[in-house]
Amino acid sequence: MSHDDGRDWRAPGSRSGSGQPGEAASGPAAGGWWDDPGAGVPAAGNGWAAPGGSGQAPGTPPPPVYGHGGGYAPGGPYGDAPGGPAPAGPPPGVGRPWAPRPGVIALRPLTLGDVFNGAFGYIRQNPKATLGLALVVSALFSIVSSIGMGGYLSDYGTVMRETLNNPTGPVANDPMPFEAWSVITVYAGALLTYIGQILLTGLLAAVVGLAVLGRRLSMREALQAVRGRLGAVFGVAVLLFLLSLLWTVLLVGVVVGAVLLGVAVHPAAGIPAGLLGVLGLIALAVWVYVRTSLAMPVAVLERSGPAAALGRSWRLTQRSWWRVFGILLVAQILVSMVVNLLSTPFTGGAMVLSFLAPDAAWMPVAATAASFVGTVLAGTLGIPFIVGVTTLLYIDLRMRREGLDLRLQAAAQSGQHVDAGIYLPEETAPAGPPSGPQPPTAPGAGADPGGYGPGGGHPPPGPGQGGYPRGGYGQGGTGALS
What is the gyration radius of the CA atoms in the chain, in angstroms? Predict the structure, then answer.
């Protein structure tokens, strides 16, 4: 049964006097559900007793007590009954287990809405360390590409104007009508922009990881959080870049092979072979991209090397490929729509200016400025959201697979200062806050009396006792996949 249904948690017939055969009548006349203090022990079947009373007649078994996470047993609030194991599942109507929310998400396995709300939330709650970092990094690393784009648009406007005036002129027959410096600057600027995106991804991954626990990092603190990790981040980027080169080489090989097949055998054989080969290569590239998409947050939060980060991402996304693919696809579509809506007027305006006034002295400057503004807007608004979605997916998969939510709950409720080391794997984590919820030290002390952890009114659930250890709700479940 899903824990997401909204039914009442009370099981049918849990109150006395429901009209079932053999039950005592309820109400004040028959002892009622409430008894006056000092009235003694109520009759068997009444649900409430005076303070200090047990609510049961001598010799009768205790009633079922329902646990916080859904497990229940006749002999106690959690675990097996004295006479046998607990039932195989929670009683009907048990809702989603309570989970604290110290930061941008509740500390439990996430749904699609949780991931997107958290990605928007960490930007909204800490704009200086998100939009501020994105603005600074995008502006610095987009200068070269904007200059190159301005020169390219200037050449483009000249070529288009001369071609319209003389379609058979020398410009129309020139295979390379653009200035060499503008083409080189465009590609060099694209490389610098990619480096800036890598740096920004590493910085924002640390910001997201600590925003989950309610911490708001400044720009300086974000830089300190990834100190010593930038080498691993750039190493992951290099490996992913080599993979993209591999796909390019394979694509060229498929196209050449299809052409040779069509020449040697028949064109009708080369065309479908090439089409199937390209489609298969695209599917393989997308599959590998999704399996390695979590390598960046792994390299930052788990302090792993480049190869180890790729391997860790590969293992975490196992059996969750479609879910990760769907969420990343929706996120990319949303970002593309917003970014294009905001940046297209600037890039389009630069092209219009280059066509209307290609010989004007101010045109290259105006085209460069417009291209710069569009590029910076795209980086400032798009990258933080994508990094937020990717990092929250990484945290969600660790919650489902490794019970990271319990560890984060304990860290949040301990009140201690926590850093990104909370995400280190168990075997490498330093000594610090307990890695799981602890039983209450005193009744009513500390946290909410209905929660887990220190001071909570409920002890932590264990395997087979409700809750959601090891990545799922209920008894050993894998959690909701939506």
Answer: 31
pLDDT higher than threshold 70 for residue 299: yes
Contact 105, 392 (CB under 8 A): yes
> Which residue did the predictor score with more confidence, 448 or 398?
398
Instruction: Write the pLDDT tens digit of every residue in 340-362.
Output: 888 888 877 777 777 777 667 77
Q: Measuring CA to CA, how many Å separate 52 from each of 48, 49, 56, 57, 204?
A: 11, 8, 12, 14, 54
Quote the pLDDT of residue 267: 77
CB proximity list for 405: less than 8 A, separation 6 or greater: 99, 107, 108, 109, 399, 468
Where does 338-399 show beta strands of DSSP type E? none
Output the pLDDT for position 161.
72
**Contact in structure between 58 and 452 (CB atoms under 8 Å):** no
> CB–CB of 248/293 below 8 Å?
no
Give the torsion sign (CA, 176, 179, 184, 189).
negative
- This prediction's pTM: 0.66
Q: What is the pLDDT of residues 82-134, one digit of tens each?
A: 444 444 444 444 445 678 899 999 999 999 999 999 999 999 998 988 999 89
Residue of 294, 196, 282 whose CA lies nearest to 236? 294
Model pLDDT, residue 60:
52
Q: Which residues contact 399 (CB under 8 A, 6 or more apart)?
A: 107, 108, 109, 110, 405, 471, 479
The set of long-range contacts for 365-372, using a CB threshold of 8 Å and a minimum separation of 24, is 365/150, 367/149, 367/150, 367/153, 367/154, 368/146, 368/147, 368/149, 368/150, 368/151, 369/146, 369/150, 370/346, 371/145, 371/146, 371/149, 371/150, 371/153, 371/346, 371/347, 372/139, 372/142, 372/143, 372/146
Task: Compute the residue count for the chain.
Answer: 482
